[in-house]
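Q: What would this complex look like in 3D?
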Amino acid sequence: DVKVTQSSRYLVKRTGEKVFLECVQDMDHENMFWYRQDPGLGLRLIYFSYDVKMKEKGDIPEGYSVSREKKERFSLILESASTNQTSMYLCASSAGTSRGELFFGEGSRLTVL
Amino acid sequence: AQKVTQAQTEISVVEKEDVTLDCVYETRDTTYYLFWYKQPPSGELVFLIRRNSFDEQNEISGRYSWNFQKSTSSFNFTITASQVVDSAVYFCALSTLSGGATNKLIFGTGTLLAVQP
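A: Here is my prediction, written as structure tokens for the whole assembly.
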């Protein structure tokens, strides 16, 4: 059974803290993605990666960075969390030839106080 | 520019009613893919269907059906005889080759479907 696992379902952090959101997939997928989901805005792509150590900016990369040291793991980093980064963060993965069939994790709800 | 519009923010129906979720897309590409994803209360989006721009055949899968019309740039999703388990947020999405890759999806804002018993 395919699986994308996000390390934390709920996090509460303070403004200025460094935040790590971890995502692991067990399907040997080449592609991994971080989306942010906000009411009325749908899902917006933050960063994605097509290979180990490779990353590309999505539509809203400001304030975020990512790391992909191993194929199965894709981390989202908030260097200095701000209140406007309070959101639901969704990780997804896909095979290189999947033509858009993404597998999602359950999401990490981050609150920045 | 690529864009997906889901004008219906919330829909509420009673069990066994049919319901159609609307999706309108914008792209100048001639090659593109359209998708529907379901997000149940657990939060994990689940892939439902993919159509490519060269295949306008409608598709039926059990109680689900999809109507793809290039003339109106629409890709609507109908649930027949809705059930409480259909309650979820449904997202329509688009990917294009000029958008970077066929795996880079642009999502609509989603439609919350509530099916009342």
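A: To summarize the key features: Chain A touches chain B at residues 31, 33, 35, 40-45, 48, 50, 56, 58, 88, 90, 92, 94, 96, 98-107 (CB under 8 Å). Chain A has a mean pLDDT of 93.
Q: Very helpful, thank you.
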